[in-house]
Amino acid sequence: MKDRIFRFVLDHPVWVILLTMLFVFGSAYGAKNLVFKSDYRVFFSEENPQLTAFESMQKIYSKSDNVAFIISPNDGQVFTPKTLKAIQELTTESWQVPFSTRVDSITNFQHTWSEEDDMFVEDLVLDAETVTDADMPRLKEIAINEPLLLHKLISPQAHVTLVNVTVQLPGINPVEEIPQVVSKIREMQAQFIEKNPDISVRLSGMVMMNNSFAESSLSDNAVLVPIMFAVVLLGMIFLLRTFSGTFATVIIIIFTIVSTMGLAGHTGFFLTGPSSTTPIMVLTLAVADCIHILTTMFYEMRQGVEKRKAILDSLRINFQPIFLTSVTTAIGFLSLNFSDSPPFRDLGNMVAAGVMLAFIFSITLFPAMLSLLPLRVKATKDGKHDFMHRFAGFVVKNRKVLLPGMSAIMISVIVFMPQNTLNDDFVKYFDTSVPFRQATDYMQENISGLSTMEISIETGEASGINDPKFLQAVGDLTEWLRTQSETDHVSSLSDIIKRLNKNMHGDDPSYYTLPGDRELSAQYLLLYEMSLPYGLDLNNQLNVDKSSARVIATFRNLTSTEQIEIEERIYSWFTDNAPDYQVEIASPNLMFAHIGQRNIKSMLLGTTVALILISLILGFALKSIKFGLISLIPNIAPAAMGFGIWYFIDGQIGLALSVVAGMTLGIIVDDTVHFLSKYLHARRDRNKDPKAAVEYAFASVGRALWVTTFVLVAGFMVLAQSSFKLNADMGLLTAITILIALIVDFLFLPALLMKLDKNDHPTTENTSNPAEGDNNDCVKKIA
Amino acid sequence: MIVLKKSLNSLVVLGLMTAPLIASAETAEEKGTRIAVEAKASDKGWQDMQTSMNMILRNKQGQESVRDIRLKSLEIENDGDKSLSVFDKPKDVKGTAFLSFSHAVGADEQWLYLPKLKRVKRIASRNKSGPFMGSEFSYEDLSSFEVEKYTYKFLRDEACEGGTCYVVEQYPVDKNSGYTRRIAWLDQTEYRPWKIEFFDRKDSLLKTLTYHEYNEYEGKHWRPNLMKMVNHQSGKSTDLTYSDYTFKTGLGENDFNKNTLKRAR
Peptide bond preceding A13: is omega within 30 degrees of 0, i.e. cis? Predict the structure, then answer.
């Protein structure tokens, strides 16, 4: 069957090429459906409890996606008539931002005061045209003493201020809505700077972060994919010295990428930060199949075999190993389906499909092209062969040192694995070259961080928020939160009520307290609400029947662990101080804070399932339980060591890294498969002792292994250059793990085999198998 | 004969073609304004009115909340109406009373009586675009219709629940309005509004108000029993139900001042 396919391919290469092209162009058509979803919510599955809590909170109150214009006048003074005028204009213009529902700035802050029985509710800066230098000290004084403004919209020194635009994205066309907002925002930024050259403007907020997901990933792909192509091209030309082979490989890669992405588009996938790395990963993984086929074919041709037969031989020899390694790699990537975060599931499925497509193209299109392309072979040089031979000698000679030495190194690296701390800080997902990151860091240094927690407190009765007991609890919570060292700002109803109580008593500061009467605060609020303008109402902090209130705390940028710790601290504050109320804490930050942990748990299961499946396949392919079990060590150790080394590189793991173990498992298994199968072949079929078998294994696959490892490490190192840290970290750790896997397979596995596989059973389970006979033939030729 | 019939036909056709040309001697702006003036005039003479209002507020999550208000209004010639609202529900604002003098031009005057504080407070604010008692209606939406509050542009005739409607665009004159424009559907026989669409400051559709269950009072004053306001951006909505309309109950200017506000129960 296999042979018939191979013969058909070589007899009708043009037909194969045309059919493949038809398939590839057919699937490429689907790529037009492949759009980038730039919303951080895509990182969370629908059943994610933190997402559910956050979405229900957004439905009860109002949505809180925002854009922050960070305004810093060069003279360091926000309160000058000129700057205030610029801010007021920006505030007015901000109402024009698509989907905006609210604009908050120091100029439109609803300042309240009273004169006798008149209650004034007005913009703090009503008409910037008429304010003069004389008004400045008063305005500044009001602003920096207002708890709703200080550290939220104005810095304590009044040198930096924010204009905060709240947008309510309808979510009907998630692909276009955010870019629409961002393009308007950027246009406003440009106009503002042109008009006010002595004021600088930076952009932050959740919308800008969402947008950076897309921009960062897409610009990465535009840079990194070509680099990766260049690496493959140069690597192959240098290592395999063939132009035709390289050309055919590049075509295979391009077709694989195009059809993978096209099929993904056809089947309704969309792109996200992680899944946008699919092309680079597929590119990296597809090369290996071609290298194996080329290596064997050239070996045959150097032996004087004519081209057609050399191709056919190479296909026969490589079919099983590359099928096996493709399947194990696909299983590794499919384990990402256990991830709690849909983009990683998509990545796993897309790459798995790509790996299998690469396999199919490698055994059909690739030989078809090779049969048509001119191929020349130079005389054999045995120099590299000698190097692997010398290396094998070294390993055999030093096995007594290598086994304990490598074991010690492996264990001492692995012990650092648990030292990594859990962290998903979405601000730090972007490196400091990304404008969003720069702006957010600047905002954190001068006004506040981007970490928020929304605390919804439910009283269980309509109008319950006016109950003095409840207001007191909210007031106490607010004060307590402000004493926490991580806190930048707390936005709370209690501040508003206190201010109103003061206003109602002729602005007497001694009345800046919570009223002790339910009806009184209800009536204050009624008065206040009737005086507020469009968009600046209290619906963002009170629910419709006033049974619950939302307090929003802003913290400096925190790690996940710190955030979860604060979350627990807040819950226990309620248990100790206000146990009667039902409390819910939610925010995008908390969603990210929890996802790392959730994902690690789910991926632990996924990786285990993949490990069991792959080990079963290995045991079956190696026809030995014993060697199946031995293979577990070089398959598991590299990921564990990778995480141990990671402690020294970064020390923080999160969402992206939690998938690396499963992902790399399928890739590193390939090395073990190749090495062990050659070793066993030597032991069983050639009656060699373990030492000789090790030497044989090195000689036959050593070179192919380090060449493919080189390509893989190079590919994932290219990914590690991404400005999107989620992808960069994933690339770096994968590269490290793959490199470690090769070292383990070269230095530890042979020593282990020579130790465990005593020479007392000279091969019993061998030559009787005819299929194996076919295999034997191949193995000797791979060398 | 045939020739004559043909020319007659073409004459009719010509007439039909020129009809809009003649009508367009009046611009769309003038026609819009004329409709507003006629609408105001058609309801003129109601003198004073009392009614009860019930509001049901809903958010996207499906939570509800109820407000009960009693309303008295007084018709003022050549200016906005005066009105006095007494809040019955929610319970903790029971007895709170709101007096407003609406003005065709310039800011309205507003006072609120807070029973717990036993004080009348004047609300000195230009804002009237915020939510009225947390509902999807703003004070601006509920205050009396005055021709001078908007400029107009007639858009088209269109079939509507009340027969054929004038569709008129209305642009608020007050710069503190929360809207750039409204589009109103008024039936051509009684000038009753059937639907109003509100566009926010960035000219996106914000809310739609629909009127239901009209009744005629005193032979010419049509009032709806139900008004439904839906906010398309937030997913929140408010149903406003009126009951017990009575007209010409003999209220006068003396029933609408700061002192009556305190006594209003």
Answer: no
Range of the domain at B101: 2-262
Residue B84's domain is classified under what CATH number? 2.50.20.10
Residue pLDDT, tens place only, A11-23: 888 888 899 999 9
CB A456 within 8 A of CB A582: no
Under DSSP, is residue A427 helix (H, G, I), strand (E, B) or coil?
coil
Alpha-carbon distance A120 to nearest alpha carbon in chain B (angstroms): 5
Closest of A603, A630, A608, A606 to residue A618, by C-alpha? A630
What is the arithmetic mean of pLDDT over A513-540?
A: 86
Give pLDDT tens digits for A679-698.
Answer: 888 888 888 888 888 988 88
Measured distance CA(A734)–CA(A713) in Å, rounded: 8
Q: How far is A150 from chain B (nearest CA, A)?
A: 24
**Residue of chain B whose Cα is closest to the Cα of A524:** B114
Which among B214, B194, B183, B192 is positioned nearest to B38, based on CA atoms?
Answer: B192
ipTM of the complex: 0.83
* B88-122 tens-digit pLDDT: 988 888 989 999 898 888 888 888 898 888 888 88
Q: How many CB atoms lie within 10 A of CB A467?
A: 16
> A759 in helix, strand or coil?
coil
- Minimal Cα–Cα distance from A490 to chain B, Å? 23
Which chain A residues are within 8 Å of B134, Cβ to Cβ? Answer: 529, 537-539, 542, 544, 546
Q: What is the pLDDT of residue A385?
A: 56
Half-sphere exposure of A63 (CA within 13 A, CB side): 20
* pTM score: 0.83
Position A767 confidence tier, pLDDT thresholds 50, 70, 90:
very low
Residues from chain A that touch B125, judged by Cβ atoms under 8 A, are 119-122, 531
A102 three-class SS: strand
β-pair partners for B97: B86, B113
Q: Which residue of A has its CA nearest to B57?
A: A544
From the list A348, A166, A384, the residue with the least C-alpha distance to A269 is A348
Q: Is the Cβ pair B116, A95 closer than 8 Å?
A: no
Q: What is the domain count for chain B?
A: 1
pLDDT of A362 > 60? The answer is yes
* Alpha helices (H) along A558-587: 560-577
Side-chain half-sphere of A192: how many Cα atoms within 13 Å? 30
